[in-house]
Design goal:
The protein is α+β, with helices and mostly antiparallel strands. It has one domain. It contains 4 helices and 4 strands; from the N terminus they run αββααββα. The protein has a 4-stranded antiparallel beta sheet. The radius of gyration is 17 Å and the shape is globular. It starts with a helix and ends with a helix.
Amino acid sequence: MKTLTLLLLLLPCFAAAEQLAPQKEIAALIEFVRNSPCRFNRNGSWYASGEAVGHINSKYHAAFDKGLVHSAEDFIHYAASTSSFTGTPYKVQCAGRAERTCADWLTAELQRLRERNN
């Protein structure tokens, strides 16, 4: 009985730890964009990483407030992959590399983060 009581008392701690992992991953992805020397295309215009982060942060907070973001994948989908107005995918171009979608670029970085932390 004591074990069951202890488990019930610790359950909120486990739930909090589960929620923290996505927040850490999202923060790491935002820093990845912020520190990137790449350029970002949104609706046909190119932006530096600082401008891209500002826009992505705005979209992230709006999506979070609507209850849409529960994971790093949700963050990529709702805040960092396509224009809410035109539906056009955001793109990224890094020196010496082909242009690619931000969704693919960030998903690859998320995979690297997870592999590093396991």
